[in-house]
Amino acid sequence: MIAALRLAISWLTVLPVRGPQTVDRTTAAGAIAAAPLVGALLGAGASGLLWVLCWAGASSALAALVTVGALVLATRGMHIDGLADTADGLGSYGPPERAREIMKSGGAGPFGVAAVIFAIGIQALALAALADAGDWFAVALAVTVGRVAVVAACRSHPAAPGAGFGALVAATQTWVPVVVWIALAVGAGVFAAPRPWLGPLAVVAALGLAAALVRHCVRRFEGLGGDVLGAAVELGVATAAAVLSLS
After folding, report:
1. Rounded CA gap, 129 and 4, in Å?
2. Residues 6+ apart with CB under 8 A from 31
3. From CA 103, how far away is CA 118, in angstroms rounded?
4. Whole-model pTM above 0.70?
5. How far is the CA of 21 from the CAs of 3, 6, 24, 104, in angstroms?
6. Largest CA distance in the chain
7. Which long-range contacts (CB under 8 A, 24 or more apart) does 88-93 make?
8. Rounded Cα–Cα distance for residues 28 and 150 (Å)
9. Angstrom distance (rounded) from CA 230 to CA 227
10. How many CB atoms lie within 10 A of CB 118?
11. Are the CB atoms for 7 and 116 separated by under 8 Å?
12. Residue 220, C-beta contacts closer than 8 angstroms, at least 6 positions apart
């Protein structure tokens, strides 16, 4: 379990933590199952940074935008890059092979740029609203929920042809970690908003939209890839934060 957590941290953050020398699908499965723990770590850091910036006198909007930027840096920009590549792939009208080529090209097209702007904008505005309300736990929960979406995405979908990271983690999860993490997230949601039903609703909405995106991408790209997982993270965080901010 410790090795899996170390691998998850090394994969999903810029923290100087080294994973095992060799990684097979069994080790990768453990790391994906531990992804929400990394999300909780990132969420706690984001919540703390947001609070410090607001306490120092920054406006909630500025503090929230800086916090979102810090999350992008803390994750090497992998998830936001995956969102951009996924949007460009979905925006193409060619066959799955052409869509996968576009995703691997390394550039950002108009669909990708628009997706990044909307994701960052929604997350920043939602975090600003949560900061104004003093809902610091909700900030951490939203970041964590994005990583729960990754666990669910890796339960049964096959890897896309030519996928590197996707081939390593696709279909590695059983129902146990999926159900456990969803239940924990829903339970935590009860304490994340003044209305006890709003937190669970935010979790369910975020995971539902992320799951719908992943299913559509699997059909469109003929399987699961790392970019799609990144897109699921960003969509999950944005949706959870947005719904929680309704409080």
Report:
1. 35
2. 4, 5, 7, 8, 11, 19, 23, 169
3. 19
4. yes
5. 11, 12, 10, 26
6. 52
7. 88/112, 89/217, 89/220, 89/221, 89/227, 90/216, 90/217, 90/220
8. 13
9. 5
10. 14
11. no
12. 89, 90, 96, 99
List beta partners, residue 159: 224
Determine phi and psi for 159, rounding to 5 degrees.
-80, 145
Quote the DSSP letter at residue 76. T
pLDDT digits (tens, 9 = 90+) for 195-215: 999 999 999 999 999 999 999
- Cα of 184 vs its chain's centroid, Å: 17
Of 109, 105, 185, the residue nearest 144 (C-alpha): 185
Q: Report pLDDT digits (tens) over 130-146.
A: 999 999 999 999 999 99
Which one-letter amino acid corresponds to residue 31? A
Higher pLDDT, 70 or 166: 70
